[in-house]
Amino acid sequence: MTEHDWKIRLLSLEPAFLTLGYIAAFFLGVGILYLGNSSAATTLLAVLGPSALLVVWMWSLKQVADAQLSPRHPNLRLDLWLLFVVLVLLLSLVALPSALSGLILGPAMLMTVFGYVLLVWRSAQALVSFEEAPKAARLHASLGTAILVFYLPIGIWFLYPRVRVLLRAVM
User: Fold this and answer.
1) Residue 49: closest CA among 19, 24, 25, 84
2) pTM (2 decimals)?
3) Angle between helices 98-131 and 40-69 in degrees, nearest 10
4) What contacts 27, CB < 8 A, 6 or more positions away?
5) Alpha-carbon distance 167 to 165, whole Å?
6) What is the rounded distance in angstroms from the CA atom of residue 26 to the CA atom of residue 152?
7) DSSP secondary structure string for all residues of the chain
8) Which residues have CB under 8 Å from 91's CB, separation 6+?
């Protein structure tokens, strides 16, 4: 059993499960907003909740593709950035008083959006780099893949055959 087993299992999910999971989380978030109170924490949970499954899927794709490219030298910079973003969000929601939390929430959301776009780009670049292993990843191929990753509930249907090739190489 390797450290990437759960990531491989997540990547091997059929596209229908990811799309349905995203839709279910989206409607759950809408229900939380509609039925619940509109505090900052519930709003953030309702907005970021549906993206959690997709973010973990993209992170798993990046980790597995990077491990195939260079198993001895994993790229930890993105992981540390995402950990920082999560810690800032938790700090702004839990530890700080509500008046100060409002001042921190705007920059925290900006950093979260930047972290999400960075994750989309790095996971797309990792997949393209795996496919074109001897050569450097081309910008237009990475950009096209990044657009598919950004719109993952739909793009997964086009990405899944490429991810299956990655999974076959891992196993």
Assistant:
1) 25
2) 0.74
3) 20
4) none
5) 5
6) 14
7) --TTHHHHHHHTS-HHHHHHHHHHHHHHHHHHHHHS---HHHHHHHHHHHHHHHHHHHHHHHHHHHHHH-TTS---HHHHHHHHHHHHHHIIIIIS-HHHHHHHHHHHHHHHHHHHHHHHHHHHHHHHHHHTTTSPPPHHHHHHHHHHHHTHHHHHHHHHHHHHHHHHHH-
8) 104
Structural domain boundaries in the chain: 5-170
Q: What is the pLDDT of residue 7?
A: 81
Q: Which of 51-60, 67-76, 98-107, 132-141 has the lowest mean pLDDT?
A: 98-107
Determine the Cα–Cα distance for residues 143 and 160; give it in Å rounded to an integer. Answer: 17
